[in-house]
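Structure (tokenized):
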């Protein structure tokens, strides 16, 4: 079974949060540089346990479905880890965006507010369900959607807001 590296994950999140909190502004705008020059650690780190779990799945020949033990186990462990009733493993961020759009009940003619700066899959997931992406400008310091500009884009057709957390920086959700 694939195990979530709880301590490693928590330590990484703590380090990232500490660095983000210490950043008054991006280094390019005169702020403190938080990532040094030279080689950077590859992420995600994949160890032998991860490789063995993948091989067990491939050897069984069942890559997906309710009977696949590794996938079901990972979903259950992750749901417990984040305090949710359920978790769904998908093959990509694009698939995750489609799942979010479906889960939100977004359909034809609905408007979904999203940042103007994002990967193409964000607006594609909206349009694939015949909904309309409504683009909002971003903040210069975070590259994320500007919360101050969201309200002016809300209409009676607005069904959801699909934020994007760019380059590991969380969007201001408050």
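Design, position by position:
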């Amino acid at each position: 079974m694939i195990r979530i590296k709880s301590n490693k994950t928590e330590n990484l999140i703590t380090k990232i949060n500490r660095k983000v909190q210490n950043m008054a502004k991006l280094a390019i705008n005169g702020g403190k540089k938080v990532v040094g020059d030279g080689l950077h650690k590859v992420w995600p780190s994949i160890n032998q346990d991860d490789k063995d779990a993948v091989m067990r799945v491939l050897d069984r020949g069942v890559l997906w479905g309710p009977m696949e033990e590794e996938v079901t186990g990972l979903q259950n462990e992750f749901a417990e880890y984040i305090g949710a009733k359920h978790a769904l493993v998908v093959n990509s961020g694009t698939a995750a965006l489609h799942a979010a759009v479906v889960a939100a009940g977004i359909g034809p003619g609905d408007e979904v507010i999203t940042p103007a700066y994002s990967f193409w899959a964000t607006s594609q997931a909206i349009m694939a369900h015949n909904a309309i992406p409504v683009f909002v400008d971003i903040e210069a310091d975070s590259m994320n959607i500007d919360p101050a500009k969201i309200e002016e884009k809300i209409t009676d057709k607005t069904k959801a807001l699909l934020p994007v957390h760019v380059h590991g920086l969380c969007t201001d959700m408050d």
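Reviewer-requested clarification: The chain has two domains: 6-82, 93-168. The two ends are 37 Å apart (CA to CA).
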